[in-house]
Each structure stands twice: as structure tokens, then as C-alpha cells.
Design a protein that fits this description.
The complex is a heterodimer.
Chain A (H helix, E strand, L loop, with lengths): L3 E5 L9 H10 L9 E5 L7 E5 L8 H5 L5 E3 L5 E3 L9 H5 L35 H7 L11 H4 L6 E5 H15 L8 H5 L6
Antiparallel strand pairs in A: 1-6, 2-3, 4-5
Chain B lengths: L7 H11 L10 H16 L24 E7 L8 E7 L2 E6 L32 E4 L2 E4 L2 H19 L4 E4 L6 H14 L4 E2 L2 H4 L1 H11 L16 E5 L3 H4 L3 H12 L2 E6 L11 E4 L5 H15 L4 H7 E2 L1 H9 L3 H8 L3 H13 L3 E5 L1 H4 L4 H14 L9 E4 L6 H6 L15 H11 L3 H7 L3 H4 L9 H6 L13 E5 L9 H10 L2 E6 L15 E5 L8 E4 L5 E4 L12 H11 L3 H4 L5 E2 L2 E2 L1 H11 L10 H9 L62 E5 L5 E5 L21 H7 L7 H11 L15 H8 L10 E2 L33 E3 L2 E3 L1 H10 L2 H4 L2 E6 L9 H4 L2 H4 L6 E4 L1 H7 L6 E5 L9 E7 L7 E5 L4 E3 L2 E2 L14 E2 L21 E7 L1
Parallel strand pairs in B: 6-7, 6-14, 8-9, 8-12, 9-10, 11-23, 12-13, 14-15, 15-16, 26-30, 27-29, 31-33
Antiparallel strand pairs in B: 1-2, 2-3, 4-5, 4-16, 17-18, 19-20, 21-22, 24-25, 26-34, 27-30, 28-29, 28-34, 31-32
Helix pairs in contact in B: 1-2, 4-22, 4-24, 6-15, 9-11, 9-12, 9-13, 9-15
Classes of the chains: A alpha+beta, B alpha/beta.
Chain lengths: 198, 977
């Protein structure tokens, strides 16, 4: 079975935010909720790098480990989803997640939180695939239609890759070999003590 | 959150208070803006949001059970890359966007803007019905009444002040057909006061580049950059302005291990991916180029054979370059010798090299000279007319190339025929109207053949004393169809000028800045025009490819498309029968296919003659057949064509010319898109020598010709007479001969390839492997321009007054019907010590989320959320001197603003800009000199995000060749608010 993954090729990301608005467009995500965002390091300085971040659909997902109502589940494609019917909006997952993926709508005064919302890897939730109920809670279910997440499909420079982990790893490996200067990934220098020829 | 209009009151006043002081904790630009916006919004919106955690689907997916989902293809309406937009439509509603994988241009990709275009046709901030100002109040009226009143007022103004007192400001957002129609409309009305955004983006490119080698457009394509070994981006930030182009640049860089040099005052997001970043002072492009050329000539790195065969006047350039020793270059630009030498060597030796630019070269008083210098660098190193080389000029809007080509321009009729009598006669033949009738529409023959007023000067033309405006009367009416009001410099003056207008008509999907600028009370109309997604037509991307967009949904609310609006107005003015003589009108809507056919029938000069609507639609239907790098169809019904038939696509559509992917490429047969430099400037040039004698220089190519050419040397433009001399006239068909003889009258030999309506001359020349426009040399010396060899001139408001004596701007002159007093302004600024009072350089540019004046994108909730505040980038050193904190409010003001006035925006403290330099995005409007103008917009049509316009601060200064403004190098002062 495929293991669905995201991979952001940091040498290609230009912080154009296509992934962010594609997600908004596809799922009609309201103002203030960002299932995906672009983070830039060393902004405006030599060595500036951008990386797009969303739920990484972890194998051993910390959000699921801490959830008091056990609303998370992992699909056969290894996508981490949750049930908004079970979610109590407690925010534990937000503390547990290393990527800041969980988002909460503001539902009233005094900062009270609504049910958690996050990237679904464009694969909906527990409701029947393609149903209106699923769309209203989680957005569209592209995976069920045989399509990959729109953020990656629309990425301006093909930096954000989505798909079976092995296939996207292969694509990335080919790019690295062609470039001939390491992966260009942020952290490469620290890890391998190699100089990135920018 | 700023979604609801009712929150306006809450936002005003509380915003500053709601923002906690931002620490200098190294947050990035967007992080900081987003956070501040969210915090402010969060407080302001208390209680305004519906309860409940579940989102409700509005128009979105999934489609209702049983509804048919259809797929429609159009082209993104933002930048000039030309990304295909694939729309899913159910029950007349656009329910989803899918990647357009088949397009060789974007291969499914989009940027933030392209990925959000669906919102444009759902946008609740759109203008919903026609409105007019009645004693300062926006009032609804019907289309019929609006057209009737506008028509009556136009006719009254015409009666009193003549046709030239009405200004037709068209748009780079029109389709080709809309652009052409607008230009035709102005001609039928009887004025050359017709312009569009190219004036303020690439007018100088068009003038400078066309004067160098024939046509003023991108020579190659985004895709072709994949072939480059050296990519030099000089005065452009495509990572934000043309993000999808970066796909080709980045892949090219990876595949070829290409050099990527970014030359810019800012360490832009493009520079972040460069192999070398060169930080220059704004306004020193020519010294930088000459600094490079100094090393190139010194070391003999130039392409001597290329120069000998294909370039005229390089020796005069050498003389000018000699003055730019490394010391002088460093004194003026601040660039160290070693870096200039290194960059020059890479560019000259590691070929093919391409030079990419955008408004970082064009928006200067020396804009034309700047782009000419760039062309000269390409010519000196032999980097034109081959794959991977060329001047890859990134245009700004989705159809700014097409609108320029189709003559939405004060200096020419469609397709660069100019305004001379022959041009008018050509178009009168195409339009089938009598030349004398056309002449009668104008005040005089002289004004008919005189360039109009540039859009940069419209408010000067309303306010200057009547005797200083070289036409019958001042400007009295503006028809603004798809053009922002905040993109032109000197907005405080514009705000005064707008009050002088007797009529202002704004036709746009949004009210735009025009609706709130100045204090108008009456005689102001807003017409809701739909976007290109709600109509059909072709648009020309930056690489000259034409793409046909089909209607995705019907125009929303009461909006109408450009064709229909222009038809209704033409009908009211009594011009419709003549204007639409050969164009089918369905109901009130002229059919764009017919308009394109008319363009084809007259577009010989620029090769807009071969792109019939049928051929364009075939390309859109078979995008998958086109190659990613060559753009040529390998298979399928369009086999052999280049994608979108990039102009020039010669001859009639039946000739099946494939279009021209790379201009001036002699390695290809002309029928495969090959060509030579255009012999546009004559055969010989007589040069007077100091001793009184004269020398005759050959302007034709020497020993260089395109593949399979039967003439193995340079040759002049083809006319019927030339064909006869060569004995090739016998290849013309009798029908072609008849057309030529009808056009030529008594003197058919003078009928040229450009006015031969049969296309016979083009066909026959190409059959013999020759290009009908001749085989000439490119001009390093363009003797008809004010500075035939580019000369460095300091910006009007220069931070280096010490250099003005040596490098002054050009003398005052009357240009384009109005005075250009740049010299006096510069001199006064130096004398007054303006550079001391305003010690920071101000330059402007684009953000990826917004486009142009920004009304449309700032009204798009998905984009507006990402950029909620106008800001100024300032270097940490300059900020520290002024006590400015990252994220804090600042006042910014410029040398031409009234004393005591300022703009208010946020500060982004960053090393992206060097010390002494500040930068602002130019997309904002709706605040004017600290006053929030939200209440002045028609109710419900105000953009979500408002902010100060950088052009409230920008200053005087105009390129002598095109009237281009100078927002890229001026001065300002900043203090903490």
C-alpha cells in the first residue's frame, strides 16, 4: 500500500503562496484558518530559504497520541485524519504537533475554540467519500477521485511534491543528482558540513 | 477579521491599539504581517462571526447530484506568463479549479494569484450594477440610462472642446479583441489620446528594443530559458512578479548547472536563488552595463564576428564605454571592480546567456536608454537570435503584450503602423471606411498624425494652462476601462486633476481608486465590467504566444463584457454601423472571433495575420502535443506549430506559418520561425564627417542570413517593386496581384509587405527563404533617439547631487503635447538640498499576492488574508537611527508632498534593502495621506484590504521617448509614527 507524503524541495520553493491559496480555494477554508503556510528562514539575507508546511501525516502522530477523545485515525494511504464529531476542541494536539498544523476557528467571545481543523491531504474525513457532509466539515476529497492534493499539484515551481513516499523520494533523488550540489535543503550544511553553492 | 463592512468602524481606531509592540525577533515579512493582521482582526471582529465550528459550503463542491460538470479552459488574468486555468463548472457555477497539466507554459502550476482566480467570479466585493455620483452619493442606475447620459455628455464635450479633450484609457486586462476595439473606437472618435498600462510598465522597453532590432518584445520565451547557461536578471523579481516562470528558470539552472546573476537594489526572492547577487544603487543601470562592457572590450571577450555581421555602430559604444573605468563605475554605482569583472566574464564567456528584465530597468527617466544598454550588452556578446539567449523581457499583465501590439497607445495605430498618413490609409482600407471621413473626425490632419498625451500626464493635461497643452483644449473627460488610479506617480496632483474633469467614467469589475480619488460630487459613472473569465477572446503572453480563453461562466450581477460595453457606447455615439461593419454582433455583443479575423486582415506588420481563431482554439484543445522546451507540436493536428502561434505568425492563416518562438534566429528557415534583424531603418546611413565629407554606412547584414535563404547576404524590405526586380513577382497569384495593384493605385511598386492585404509579398519572399521585412543590422547606435548611444543620467531626485553636474537629466522640452520640465525640477532639487532633507532612496515593486493597482486582488479574500498592511522595507541601520521598530507604524513622505502631509504605513526592518534604500509595494490604495477612504467606496464594493499608495510619495520625471514615469528611483524620509 502507498504511503502518502509531502516533500518540499527547499531549493525550489519561492514563497509564492500558491499552495496556500490553492488549499483555500479547494476547500473553501475561511479567513483565519491556514491548513498550509510558507515559512521563510533568513528572510532578506543570503541563504534565504522557504519551506511550505502543513500536516506531515506522521507515521506515529503525536496529535493522535495526546488526543483525549481519540478522534484521530490513519487511513490505508497513511493519511492522518480526524473526526470533527468527536473532537472537543481542547487544543492538546496543537501543543503536541511539531509543525503547527492544527488550526482552530474562533467561535465566540473570550477566545473559546471551535473544533480542530487541519490539512486532510485532500482526503476528507470519516463521512462517505464525496458527500456534502464530508465537504462541509473537511473540504473536498480529491484522493477518492484519484487526484493528489491541490497544493502540490499547483505548486509554481514543482517544489512541493505529494504522492507515494517512495515515488516522490525518487523524483527528489534525481533532482539532487542533477544539481550536483547536495540537496539544497535547509540544514544540509549543518548535517553534512558541505557548502551549498546556493 | 475584515470580511464584513460593519466592522469598518471597529477596525479604524482600534488597529494601532490592538497591536502589541513587535519585538525584533527575526520574524519574516509575511509572518509579521500576518500575525499583526490576525491580532488586529481578531479583536475587531469580536462577535461578528457566526457561531459553530463547521463551515458551510457556499457555491463550492461537490456538485449537486445529477449535475453535469463541464471543464472549461481560460488563461489566468494576472501576470504575463499565461498560465492555463482549468475550471469545473456545474449549473453555471464555477465550482473548482484543476491544474492544467497540458499547458507547456505552466504544466498545471499557479502562483497564489492563479490558484485563487475562482474567487474573482464569486467576489461579493465586485461592482454589481452601474452607479453614478449624485451630489457625492453613489446612486444606482440602469445600463441604458448610464450609456445614454455618458454618450450625451461625451458629445457635448466634443462639441465644445473637440475630440482630443476625451481620454480613452484602456487596459492590459482586455483581450486582444477588446484592445483592438478600444483603439479603433478612439480612432473613430477622432483622437490619439488612447493609452493603457504599458505606458507605465514597458513603454520604454518597446521603444528602446524596437529601435535596436525591429520589434519591441521578448525575443525568446520563458520555456527557452531552459537552454541558457547564464541567466542574468537585472531589474526584475520574477519570483514574486512571475512565479511560474521560475519553474523554467530553476529547472534550467539545475539541468545546465547554469549561472544565475541577480542585479537589484534588493536581495529579492529571486536573488535568494541566484548564484551571484549584485546590489546596485537604483538608477545606475547604464553605468553597471558599461562597467561590464569595459571589461569585455578590454579583454576582447566580445563576439567580433557577430558584431561585424549583424550590428551597426558598436564603435561609438566603445567610445562611451571607455569613459566608464572601474573607478568611475564604483564611484557612481558602488560596485567593486572585481565583482563587475567576474559577472562580465561569466556573461560573455559562458554562453548562451540571457538578460531578463522587468520594471527595474524601464521605470526611469532613462528607461529607454537603460533597455538600449541592455540590448547593446547582448549584441556585444552575440547573445541574440539563438536558443537560450536574448532579451527576455517579462511583461507585467496578462495581455499587456497584446494590448501594446494592438495599439492601445498614443503613438500608433494597431500593430505599430504609427500615425503617419500611410498608416491611417492602411487601417481605413482594413476597416472599409473612407480616409476623408476618418480625417473629418479629427480636429486637424496635423493632430491626427501627432502622438497623444501619455497616461502619466493626464492630470497635467487637465490642469495646465490651456496654451501649454498642444491641442484644442485641456482634457475634460476620462474613460477609464480597466486601469488602476494608484499606479501613476504623483497622486496628490492626480487628486487635484480629477476634480477638473467634466466627466469620469470607470468601467471595471471593481470601483478602483478612481472612485475615491479627489473630491468629486457629480458626473462620475461606474460601469460593472466582467473579468476575462466571463467572456471569450485571445490574449498574448509575454513570449508572444496567443491563447484563446473560453467563457467559464456568464457575467455575474449586471456586469457586461468589454465588447458589449464598447458596442453600446458606439451605438449611442452613432458610430456602431461603421465600426462593426465587418464584425458580427449577436444581440449587443460583437463576436470576438470576428474581431480577431479583422485583426488578421490588417495585422501584417507584426505577424498578427496568421493566428485565426480556429488555429488558436486548435492549440488550446491540443496543448498536450507541444514540447516543453521548443514549444513546437510534435504530433497531433497542430503538428509543426509553435504553441500559441507566437507573433510574428506570417501570411494568411492558410499559409500555416508556425509562429516565431525565438526572434531573429538565423539557424532556422523562415517557414520554421527563423528570421533576421529587421531592416527597418533603411539601407544606408549617411554620416557627416568633421572634414565636411560624408561617409555611407551599410545598414544591411553582412554575410549573415537565415537558413536556406536564397539571398546570401543582407537585403532590404520587400515591396512589389523589389519582387519585380528579383523576378519573383511571377510567383504571385493573379488575385494577390490584383489586391496589390488596387492598394498601390498609380504606383503599385511601392506597396510593401506590411500593407499588402493579400499577404502575397510575404508568401513569395518566404517561399524563397527570405524574410519580407529585410535582413538588416541591429543598431547599437539608434540615431533617431534623444541619446543615440545610451548615456548615464542621474534620476530627477537623486541621492547623489554631486553627480548631477556631470550626469544631468535631459533639458526641458515639450513632449507629447505637454511640457517636460525634468531638468528644472532636478536643478531645483539640487539647489534646495533635497537629498539632505530626504536622505532615503525610495523604490517600488510587486508582491506575489497582489497585482497592479491591486483592487481586484485586495478584494479577493484568499489573497487579502496574506497581505493585510501596506508597508515599507527599511534597513536595520536606518531604522535604528530613527527609532523605528519592526512592525511599527511609520510616517513616510516625499519631496513633492505638501508640507505637513505624510503617508502612514508599517515598517518592515530588513536587510533585504541596503542602507539608505527603502522599498514599498505599489498595490495599495484606499488610504490617502493618512486618511482612510473606505467610506467613499460604493457600499459593499470596498476592497478588503486598503492602504497608502506608494505613488502618493513618488515624484516628477518622464522618459523623453515615451513619457514613462520614474517611481523606481526617488527620495523619501521616514519617521516613527
Amino acid at each position: 500500500m502507498a504511503r502518502m507524503k509531502f516533500l518540499c524541495d527547499a531549493d525550489r520553493c519561492i514563497e509564492c503562496n500558491a499552495c496556500v491559496t490553492a488549499c483555500k480555494n479547494e476547500h473553501e477554508v475561511p479567513w483565519g484558518i491556514n491548513r498550509r503556510r510558507v515559512v521563510t528562514i533568513n528572510d532578506g539575507k543570503p541563504g534565504e530559504r522557504s519551506v511550505t508546511m502543513a500536516c506531515m501525516h506522521c507515521t506515529d502522530a503525536p496529535c493522535a497520541a495526546v488526543c483525549p477523545v481519540n478522534c484521530f485515525y490513519t487511513t490505508a494511504d497513511a493519511v492522518v485524519l480526524h473526526s470533527k464529531d468527536l473532537c472537543i476542541g481542547c487544543g492538546y494536539c496543537f501543543y503536541a504537533c511539531p509543525f503547527g498544523a492544527p488550526q482552530y476557528p474562533k467561535v465566540g467571545n473570550f477566545g473559546s475554540r471551535g473544533k480542530m481543523d487541519k490539512c486532510t491531504y485532500c482526503s476528507g474525513g470519516p463521512e462517505p467519500d464525496g458527500s456534502l457532509a464530508e465537504f462541509e466539515k473537511y473540504g473536498t476529497n480529491r484522493l477518492a477521485e484519484g487526484k493528489l492534493p491541490l497544493c502540490a499539484e499547483m505548486c509554481s515551481t514543482k517544489s512541493l511534491l505529494a504522492g507515494d513516499g517512495e515515488i516522490i523520494a525518487q523524483i527528489y533523488k534525481e533532482r539532487v543528482v542533477k544539481r550536483g550540489y547536495g540537496s539544497g535543503a535547509w540544514g544540509w550544511k549543518t548535517a553534512y558540513r558541505e557548502t551549498i553553492a546556493s | 477579521m475584515l470580511i464584513k463592512r460593519t466592522e469598518r468602524q471597529a477596525r479604524r481606531g482600534t488597529l494601532a491599539a490592538a497591536l502589541p509592540c513587535q519585538g525584533e525577533d527575526g520574524l519574516d515579512r509575511r509572518g509579521f504581517l500576518r500575525r499583526s493582521g490576525l491580532l488586529a482582526g481578531g479583536l475587531a471582529a469580536l462577535g461578528a462571526l457566526p457561531l459553530g465550528s463547521m463551515r458551510k459550503a457556499k457555491a463550492g463542491p461537490p456538485p449537486p447530484a445529477g449535475a453535469q460538470v463541464t471543464i472549461r479552459k481560460n488563461i489566468c488574468t494576472h501576470c504575463s506568463v499565461g498560465c492555463t486555468v482549468v475550471a469545473e463548472v456545474a449549473n453555471g457555477v464555477w465550482i473548482g479549479q484543476e491544474p492544467g497539466w497540458d499547458s507547456p507554459i505552466n504544466r498545471g502550476s499557479h502562483c497564489a494569484k492563479g490558484a485563487s482566480v475562482r474567487e474573482l467570479v464569486h467576489g461579493d466585493r465586485r461592482l454589481k450594477y452601474p452607479m453614478k455620483l449624485v451630489n457625492g452619493q453613489w446612486t444606482r442606475l440602469s445600463w441604458d440610462q448610464a450609456i445614454d447620459e455618458i454618450g450625451a455628455k461625451l458629445l457635448a464635450i466634443r462639441e465644445k472642446s473637440g475630440p482630443d479633450s476625451v481620454y480613452w484609457l484602456g487596459s492590459a486586462k482586455f483581450s486582444n479583441e477588446g484592445s483592438y476595439l478600444c483603439r479603433k473606437f478612439a480612432a473613430f472618435w477622432g483622437t490619439n489620446n488612447v493609452d493603457h498600462q504599458a505606458r507605465i510598465c514597458h513603454s520604454t522597453t518597446v521603444a528602446g528594443v524596437a529601435n535596436t532590432w525591429g520589434y519591441g518584445a521578448m525575443t525568446n520565451s520563458y520555456n527557452d530559458i531552459r537552454n541558457s547557461k547564464t541567466i542574468m536578471v537585472m531589474g526584475g523579481n520574477p519570483a514574486e512578479a512571475h512565479p511560474v516562470s521560475l519553474q523554467h528558470l530553476l529547472e534550467g539552472k539545475e539541468l545546465n548547472r547554469a549561472n544565475w546573476i541577480s542585479v537589484d537594489p534588493r536581495m529579492t526572492r529571486t536573488a535568494a536563488h541566484a548564484t551571484e547577487y549584485v546590489r546596485v544603487r537604483p538608477g545606475t543601470h547604464i553605468p553597471t552595463i558599461y562597467g561590464m562592457l569595459w571589461h569585455i572590450f578590454q579583454n576582447g571577450w566580445e563576439d567580433k564576428e557577430f558584431i561585424r555581421q549583424r550590428v551597426y555602430g558598436m564603435d561609438e559604444v566603445r567610445k562611451e564605454v571607455e569613459k566608464w573605468t572601474p573607478d568611475e563605475v564604483e564611484r557612481v554605482t558602488g560596485l567593486p571592480e572585481a565583482q563587475v569583472k567576474r559577472v562580465a566574464e561569466i556573461f560573455a564567456k559562458q554562453r548562451p546567456s540571457t538578460l531578463i528584465w522587468a520594471m527595474g530597468q524601464t521605470q526611469f527617466t532613462v528607461g529607454t536608454a537603460n533597455v538600449r544598454a541592455s540590448c547593446i550588452l547582448l549584441l556585444a556578446t552575440g547573445n541574440v537570435g539563438n536558443f537560450g539567449t536574448g532579451a527576455n523581457i517579462f511583461r507585467g499583465h496578462c495581455n499587456v503584450q497584446g494590448a501594446t501590439d494592438l495599439g492601445l497607445d498614443i503613438v500608433t495605430l494597431p500593430l505599430y503602423y504609427g500615425l503617419v498618413e500611410g498608416a491611417w490609409k492602411h487601417w481605413c482600407r482594413v476597416w472599409e471606411v473612407d480616409y476623408d471621413w476618418m480625417l473629418s473626425r479629427f480636429d486637424s490632419k496635423q493632430i491626427m498624425e501627432t502622438s497623444g498625451i501619455p497616461s502619466t500626464r493626464w492630470f497635467d493635461a487637465t490642469m495646465l494652462p490651456k496654451d501649454q497643452v498642444a491641442q484644442k483644449d485641456n482634457l475634460k473627460a476620462m474613460l477609464v476601462l480597466g486601469h488602476g488610479g494608484n499606479t501613476i506617480t504623483r497622486m496628490p496632483q492626480a487628486a487635484k486633476g480629477i476634480e477638473q474633469l467634466e466627466l469620469l467614467v470607470v468601467g471595471d469589475p471593481h470601483p478602483t481608486t478612481w472612485a475615491v480619488l479627489g473630491e468629486r460630487k457629480n458626473d462620475t459613472y461606474l460601469l460593472p465590467i466582467c473579468t476575462q473569465f466571463e467572456t471569450s477572446g485571445s490574449r498574448t503572453a509575454s513570449n508572444r504566444s496567443l491563447q484563446w480563453g473560453e467563457q467559464i461562466v456568464k457575467p455575474i450581477f449586471e456586469s457586461k463584457d468589454d465588447y458589449q460595453t464598447m458596442y453600446l457606447l458606439a451605438k449611442r455615439l452613432g458610430l456602431a454601423d461603421l465600426m462593426f461593419k465587418n464584425i458580427k454582433v449577436e444581440g449587443d455583443r460583437p463576436v470576438p472571433e470576428d474581431i480577431l479575423r479583422e485583426i488578421n486582415r490588417g495585422g501584417w506588420s507584426t505577424g498578427y495575420c496568421g493566428q485565426s481563431p480556429e488555429r488558436l482554439k486548435l492549440h488550446m484543445a491540443n496543448q498536450k502535443d507541444f514540447d516543453l522546451v521548443t514549444l513546437r507540436a510534435k504530433d497531433g493536428p497542430a503538428k509543426g506549430d509553435y504553441y500559441g502561434l507566437p507573433w510574428p505568425c506570417w501570411g494568411t492563416p492558410e499559409l500555416k506559418h508556425p509562429g516565431t518562438h525565438t526572434l531573429y534566429n538565423t539557424n532556422l528557415n523562415v517557414m520554421d520561425g527563423g528570421s533576421t534583424f529587421r531592416a527597418r531603418f533603411g539601407v544606408e546611413r549617411e554620416v557627416k564627417l568633421p572634414d565636411g565629407t560624408a561617409r555611407k554606412d551599410n545598414l544591411l547584414a553582412e554575410g549573415s542570413y537565415s537558413l536556406d535563404s536564397e539571398i546570401k547576404d543582407g537585403y532590404p524590405e520587400f515591396t512589389y517593386g523589389v519582387l519585380k526586380k528579383l523576378g519573383w513577382d511571377k510567383d504571385l497569384t493573379p488575385a494577390e496581384k490584383a489586391v496589390i495593384e488596387r492598394i498601390g493605385g498609380n504606383n503599385p511598386d511601392t506597396v510593401s509587405w506590411a500593407i499588402d492585404l493579400s499577404g502575397g509579398i510575404q508568401r513569395v519572399a518566404m517561399e524563397h527563404g527570405c524574410i519580407h521585412y529585410g535582413n538588416g543590422k541591429a543598431r547599437a547606435n539608434a540615431w533617431n533617439l534623444p541619446d543615440p548611444i545610451p548615456v548615464h543620467r542621474e534620476p530627477i531626485y537623486t541621492p547623489r547631487p554631486d553627480l548631477v553636474a556631470k550626469y544631468p537629466t535631459r533639458p526641458d522640452a515639450k513632449e507629447f503635447r505637454v511640457p517636460n520640465t525634468g531638468f528644472t525640477v532636478q536643478k531645483t532639487a539640487v539647489e534646495k538640498g533635497i537629498a539632505k532633507q530626504f536622505p532615503l532612496i525610495l523604490t517600488s515593486g510587486r508582491l506575489v499576492e497582489y497585482e497592479g493597482g491591486g483592487e481586484e486582488t485586495r478584494s479577493n479574500k484568499w489573497l487579502a488574508e496574506l497581505q493585510q498592511d501596506m508597508f515599507i522595507e527599511i534597513n536595520p541601520a536606518d531604522a535604528a537611527e530613527r527609532g523605528i521598530k519592526d512592525g511599527g507604524w511609520v510616517f513616510v513622505w516625499g519631496p513633492e508632498m505638501e508640507s505637513g502631509k505624510a503617508t502612514r504605513m508599517k515598517a518592515l526592518v530588513t536587510e533585504r534593502v541596503g542602507k539608505g534604500v527603502t522599498w514599498c509595494p505599489f498595490h495599495f490604495a484606499g488610504w490617502f495621506q493618512t486618511v482612510d477612504q473606505r467610506g467613499k467606496y460604493p457600499q459593499g464594493c470596498d476592497p478588503i484590504v486598503l492602504g497608502e499608495s506608494v505613488n502618493t510619495i513618488t515624484t516628477y520625471g518622464f522618459d523623453p521617448v515615451t513619457g514613462m514615469q520614474e517611481p523606481k528611483a526617488t527620495l523619501c524620509q521616514v519617521k516613527a509614527a
